Amino acid sequence: MLLELSLLVVYRGVLPVMVALGVVASLATIWVLAQPGLRKAVANRYFLALAAFDLLLFLFYIPILVSACGCTFPNYGSAYYFSHFGWSLVNSFHGMSTYTLVLLALDRFMGVWFPTAFKRLQQPPFAFTHRMVAVVVLSVGVQVPFMPHGNVVCAEDKNIKCYSNTTTCESGAWVSVNGYECNYDQPWHIASRYFLSLIVYWLPYVLMLVFNVSLVIAVSLGKTKKNKEDMLVATVIAMTASYVLFTLPITIFLTGFADTDTDRCKNYNPKEMLRHMGNILQIAEHVLHILFLLLINPRFRREMISLVRRRSATSEEGNTTSPGDDQRFGSRPLNSTLHSGKAGDSNRPFRPPIPWRVTSRDSRCPTTPGRGVG
């Protein structure tokens, strides 16, 4: 009963709301940062890439919600997807988001402490595009060893195997065994797990800690002299600090408590509460990115407010005419209105036009007949 309640609250209540908010927040961030006035800045390119990776993570998190973290599958196809790609793709996009933050912090660190080297790092082969390609390759590459080794078995099969070709199940209850569980005790699997944990979780923690401490010292010493640079450094510090705090629980679970327990969806296990709490905090960390931009970055905030006002003003333009105006002017053609305006002017007394005064400076310009001084 407690297990079913926890799955219902987390994967049918809390996380769907957070994922929906994350999708809206990511789309809004992309919309604002894609404006010509913002996208040219180097730091905003990182924020734009971060929002794109966050959006992909939220979208690919939907199968996790539908399956209640891999506990219920409507058919064989959904179980097959989850066993091979479910967590692997989510973790890949999480890795891309993580290293985008690391590179953003690195840029601020170099810009504050080593300005000359910072300029060289903006050129090939260290330019922004090359960095993003490297981030994608690294984030997907560390997940590839686990993708082929997942399997789907029937819940009636007491011997859960990683290599079976079962495609029929009388009860229709499928069990997904992903690549993180299969071959768990094999040397190559152990080495791949530790390398994955090091690259995706612990190394970014160390790098962010070093960069954040250095940036805090730089701010205290007055090395960030411009207000714009202060705001950017504050945004980076807030994002990286929240990343460490919000992803630490799931990192501790995956490193020290995750195992091959295939009964986690049937029997209550206190360790699973740490998994559920870690998943909630991890999603919350991605949702908070736009909040930091709104609260700390004034230029982003002004641009978003301007876009929202412009959008609302455009939508109201079609409703500025009252129904009475439509009845009065709807049947009158435009040329007849213009003609009546001209006719009204003809009733005025005629006044001859006043010619331009010709001075020595504009003596070469002849006076134009029939044109008055405005």
Automatic annotation (TrEMBL):
GO cellular component assignments: membrane
SUPFAM superfamilies: Family A G protein-coupled receptor-like (SSF81321)
Keywords (A to Z) from UniProt: G-protein coupled receptor, Membrane, Receptor, Transducer, Transmembrane, Transmembrane helix
Biased composition regions of type Polar residues, renumbered to the chain: 315-324
G-protein coupled receptors family 1 profile domain boundaries: 25-293
Record-level Gene Ontology MF annotations: G protein-coupled peptide receptor activity
Record's keyword annotation contains Membrane: yes
Entries under InterPro entries matching the protein: 7TM_GPCR_serpentine_rcpt_Srw (IPR019427), GPCR-like (IPR053093), GPCR_Rhodpsn (IPR000276), GPCR_Rhodpsn_7TM (IPR017452)
Location of the region described as Disordered in the Swiss-Prot/TrEMBL record: 311-374
Transmembrane residue ranges: 13-34, 46-65, 85-106, 126-146, 194-219, 231-257, 277-296
Location in the cell: Membrane
Family according to the record: Belongs to the G-protein coupled receptor 1 family.
Official protein name in the record: Putative G-protein coupled receptor
UniProt source species: Chionoecetes opilio
